[in-house]
Amino acid sequence: MTIDPWLLERLVCPATRTPLHYDEVAGELVSEAAGLAYPIRDGVPVMLVEEARRLEDRG
């Protein structure tokens, strides 16, 4: 799955308002500044802090 580059340029982390990067392997939008990864479900980014995974949970 890929994410539209136009959309990715416009999305920001809702917690920090910083740019996100797309982790294609995990299928997530990652905010390094917040230490959060936002899931993409059925092609739709879920931009809710409550739904995000903490990066230290990776493993």
UniProtKB/TrEMBL annotation:
GO cellular component, one term: cytosol
HAMAP family linked: UPF0434
Domain of life: Bacteria
Signal peptide as annotated in the record: none
Name this protein carries in UniProt: UPF0434 protein SAMN04488241_10849
Species whose genome carries this gene: Sphingomonas rubra
Assigned protein family: Belongs to the UPF0434 family.
Record-linked Pfam families: Trm112p
